[in-house]
Amino acid sequence: MTGQEINRDVWKQAASEAAAQLVEDDMLVGLGTGSTAAFFIQALARRMQQGLRIAGTISSSLASQELAQSLHIPITDFATHPSLDIYIDGADEIDSQLNLVKGGGGALLREKIVASASRRFVVIADQLKLVQRLGQSFALPIEAIPFAAPLVSRKLTNLGATVKLRGGSTTPFITDNHNVILDCTFADGILDPAALDEQLHHVVGIVETGLFLGMAQQALIGGPHGVQVLP
């Protein structure tokens, strides 16, 4: 592991610890997916060991739910609790407006569902996730129905994307929802995220996009000088 990788884990953990302090007694908490979210889940478990009481959690992936259960964090569902107090999750890219690219872990659909059901969405990340323009350093994930994937891929190409089926055609990555992920690279990044998202939602066969626009209220960014709070 390189020095930068070690630093990034320290920065992610610092942001996660700060986020865990936002959780109050009797809250319903959304749990994200990925390495940074895993740090948060562990930090939340430590707070519970110190006496924090939470009403329940809903995870954006089976992996996060299994981690939460292993740490004795209470689990609930939307049938029981249709709204959450707070959702804490990482992101692959964050711009100055707190617009995000998410889905590196393949859970973008469930992440967006949990985010939309939460009163407050807080993003946690290391400072290398901050970007001037979305799509310049990370591919945009698109969740698509497998049957439609070739058609969707062609339409994405027509929109200017270079498209790769995650995992390849022999062993494609399959989401918790039994769909596939198409990773889209744009040569100059995403010039107009809102316009692109609107176009993508009119493509039949696309289930959801990894663009999270106007959904996050706050970001906790770990770096060499501690945790920065945005905005």
Structure explained in plain terms:
The structure is a single chain. β1 (28-31), α2 and β2 (56-59) form a beta-alpha-beta unit. By secondary structure, the protein is an alpha/beta fold. It has two domains: 3-127 and 213-223, Rossmann fold (3-Layer(aba) Sandwich); 140-209, ACT domain (Alpha-Beta Plaits, 2-Layer Sandwich), CATH 3.30.70.260. The strands form three sheets. The protein has a six-stranded mixed β-sheet with strand order 2-1-3-6-12-13, with helices on both faces. The protein has a four-stranded antiparallel β-sheet with strand order 8-9-7-10, covered by helices on one side. It has a three-stranded antiparallel β-sheet with strand order 4-5-11, with no helix packed on it. 30% of the residues lie in helices and 23% in strands. The longest helix has 18 residues, at 3-20. The chain has helices at 3-20, 35-49, 62-70, 108-116, 149-158, 193-200, and strands at residues 28-31, 56-59, 86-89, 93-94, 100-101, 121-126, 140-144, 162-165, 180-185, 206-209, 211-212, 218-223, 226-230.
